[in-house]
């Protein structure tokens, strides 16, 4: 879903692992072109992965139907990456209405609940039609998942989560995210379904950029 579509969507809401190459020019050799299939950032984005690791980020929004459709494919891919690849998810915020879901993600992460509840959040929104768009609705849903609600609220409203939200939005801006789902590689490259043609191609492009980044 593109950035320009979010204002309308937000208003409505409120009312196979691929083989990696090794060449430094692998992306070009595979037929992927800078400026078409992916963009090279003019200024490097912040990277948190340690030296010797290649950081890959998926930018997503829980309420995005395209993110929901991509999630199983991305999850399978993320589990298959080599040991030198560090994968992170970053929830975006194109306006203030997105913030509760950013806080939901980081609170689940802080409580080690993503393995059990991340997919359930997508299901709640896209199958059960529970928008999970405000604090109170999120708290009500969390309380029904067998989670210690008092502890969740503490984490959700913590300085740590607020800081993670700030950094997530900063990183989204550094990568100049145009829509979601989208992916960033090594603080230097950005791609999405519009650029690559579809999300399967996005993963092919990302694999090529990982290989290229190893040599950079």
Automatic annotation (TrEMBL):
UniProt-recorded name of the protein: Thiol:disulfide interchange protein
Keyword Disulfide bond: yes
Family: Belongs to the thioredoxin family. DsbA subfamily.
Protein localization: Periplasm
Broad class of the protein's primary localization: periplasm
Presence of keyword 4Fe-4S: no
Residue ranges constituting the Thioredoxin domain according to the UniProt record: 18-173
Pfam families given in the database record: DSBA (PF01323)
Native species: Comamonas guangdongensis
The entry's keywords: Disulfide bond, Periplasm, Redox-active center, Signal
Highest taxon listed in the record's lineage: Bacteria
Signal sequence coordinates: 1-29
């Amino acid at each position: 879903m593109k950035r320009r579509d979010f204002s309308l969507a937000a208003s409505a809401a409120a009312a196979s692992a691929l083989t990696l190459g090794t060449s430094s020019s692998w992306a070009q050799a595979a037929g992927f072109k800078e400026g078409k299939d992916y963009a090279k950032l003019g200024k490097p984005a912040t990277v948190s992965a340690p030296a010797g690791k290649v950081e890959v980020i998926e930018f997503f929004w829980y309420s995005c139907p395209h993110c929901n459709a991509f999630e199983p494919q991305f999850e399978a891919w993320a589990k298959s990456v080599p040991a030198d690849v560090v994968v992170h998810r970053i929830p975006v915020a194109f306006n203030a209405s997105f913030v509760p879901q950013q806080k939901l993600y980081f609170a689940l992460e802080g409580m080690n609940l993503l393995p059990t509840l991340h997919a359930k959040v997508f299901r709640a929104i896209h199958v059960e039609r529970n928008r999970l768009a405000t604090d109170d609705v999120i708290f009500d849903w969390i309380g029904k998942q067998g989670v210690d609600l008092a502890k969740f609220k503490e984490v959700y409203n913590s300085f740590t989560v607020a800081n993670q939200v700030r950094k997530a939005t900063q990183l989204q801006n550094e990568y100049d995210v145009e829509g979601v789902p989208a992916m960033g590689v090594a603080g230097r490259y950005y791609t999405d379904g519009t650029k690559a043609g579809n999300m399967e191609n996005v993963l092919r492009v990302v694999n090529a950029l990982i290989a290229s980044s190893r040599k950079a």
